[in-house]
Amino acid sequence: MLEITGLTKSYGDLRVLDGVDLTVGTGEVVGLLGPNGAGKTTLVSIVAGLRRADAGRVVALGADVTADPGAVRDRLGLAGQELGIYPVHTVAENLRLFGTLGGLRGPALAASVEDLADALELTDLLGRRAGTLSGGQKRRVHTACALVHRPRLVLLDEPTVGADPESRLRLLQLVRRLAAEGATVLYTTHYLGEIEDLDARVVILAGGTVRADGGVAELVAGHTRREIVLRFDGPPPELDWPGARRADAALHLPAADPATETVRALQLLGDGRTRLTGIEMGRASLEQAYLAILAGSGSGSGSAAADRVAAGPSGGTAGAAR
Amino acid sequence: MTRVLAIARHDAIAMAREPAAFVTLLLTPALLMLFVKPLYRSVLAQSGDTAANGAELAVPAMTVMFAFFMVGIASEAIFREHGWRTWDRLRVSPLRDWELLLGKVLPSYLMVLVLFAILFGLGVGVVGFRVRGSVPGVLAILLVLAAVVVSLAMALCAVSASRRQAFAYERLLALVFAGLGGALVPVALLPDWLEVPARLTPTYWAMRGFGDVVLAGRGFPAVLPELAALGAFVLVFGGVAVSRFRMDTARQHWD
Ligand SMILES: Nc1ncnc2c1ncn2[C@@H]1O[C@H](COP(=O)(O)OP(=O)(O)OP(=O)(O)O)[C@@H](O)[C@H]1O
Ligand SMILES: [Mg+2]
């Protein structure tokens, strides 16, 4: 359990966090999103006790971190945004050091190293010096070092930067497993598809405050509109449909339930059907919701921003592909 | 204590994998010992000690001079963690601050002692170094001198924002200590007015102690004042280190 209330932090005149409230339950994964410079890394560093907050409270695993930054260190795993591994040491030596510092000994340490190496596909690399690995491999070692002592509070700051699709899937699997085993996980990323895959609760940080907080489905439903896209050979016909928008060779029809409403749209089309070349049912993505939330001030589905974002045909197809 | 040993072991591995610096720290004084030995023999002969072969001064002098170039062993141990960005990882681990620092200081101290041992070993085996008085006296001076080196390193880490800055201080102090303290030219040959500033260098006390037991053939009690003086340097440097060292300083490695 992680409870952050009223967290405020400035660097000089720059107020990065301005009253952030955020809770992550035990066994829950929260995806912390936000544009570059939103303060995600700052927030994570404060939770880890690396930086001091100006105001506010962080209670992690029952201990007040703002009062005593060292209180949860034995149960904390932080994989920071910046790579931090020992290049002249082997992968195994890197993992064993952090396992030992975290209190593991002997067979328990060996088992944990083996388990993590397996989960993050590092088994064949254990004997290699970390400095000789590829960028994505280093990032996996970096993440594994944060998890090897079996932390209860897991802070992962962009752990999938530079990861190939397979490593990404394995990492997401591991994150799900950690949560299922009862860890409290705060996960930062710019790849919104990962958050959809994790089906994590989403917190969007921007302008120093939490701009949205909710499940993926909830945010997508609240901040985007689903739509049907009808493509034509030539200019699309006029259609009596609330919110309909005509593009070059396509007709965008907002729809709460695209599957059933497509039938009605086709009926309304009548003779226009003969020139029809394709139908797409855009299931809006988290990315669209995210952009809408950042563009507007986080208002509901009727906002201009949501319209603009949901209207993009490529965005709609991308959503459907996921 | 397991955590201290884990850090110390980890650092020892790092040292073993990058031995180039140690080779330089050994080869240079070892060669210089051979070169300056005849020089010191004539110096000693002029002062009336015709039985001496020069190694009695050459071996301690070069060791003490290069001891202060070994400061970099311990400061590098701190700064490379910043360069590798592992410092913050160690800070969020359950390691307590003193455990981390002790884990850094221990292998550095041992490494300095190993270098001393090799230099004196070469001195005995190759250069013809003999101790006329108390051998334990020589060992005690080396043990405390190594502590001076490491505590100076930690003091420099505490006041430097980067390895580059610490390195500049290291080189300056190493040369000043060697020049003033009688590791380049015996203090007796320096102008009288330098006697007082010479006493402000640890080199002076180490060389004086070696003079007592190696050349004058005196017993262990003779070096107690010098050991105390060197101990005072450990306290001063250690005091600066402890009072000024901040765990949350964002130190830079080389750039
Ligand atoms: N040590 C620092 N000193 C001064 N300003 C800082 C410092 N660290 C971060 N900042 C500033 O604070 C703001 C938030 O930075 P932070 O790294 O927390 O953002 P972020 O959300 O993690 O961004 P990204 O997605 O790029 O990782 C930025 O404007 C950054 O320039
Ligand atoms: Mg960041």
UniProtKB/TrEMBL annotation, chain A:
Residues 313-322 have a biased composition (Gly residues). This is ABC transporter domain-containing protein. GO terms for cellular component: plasma membrane. Residues 303-322 are annotated as: Disordered. Residues 303-312 have a biased composition (Low complexity). One of its GO terms (molecular function) is ATP hydrolysis activity. Residues 2-232 form the ABC transporter domain. The keyword Nucleotide-binding applies. Keywords: Antibiotic resistance, ATP-binding, Nucleotide-binding, Transport. InterPro entries: AAA+_ATPase, ABC_transporter-like_ATP-bd, ABC_transporter_ATP-binding, P-loop_NTPase. It is found in: Cell membrane. The keyword DNA damage does not apply.
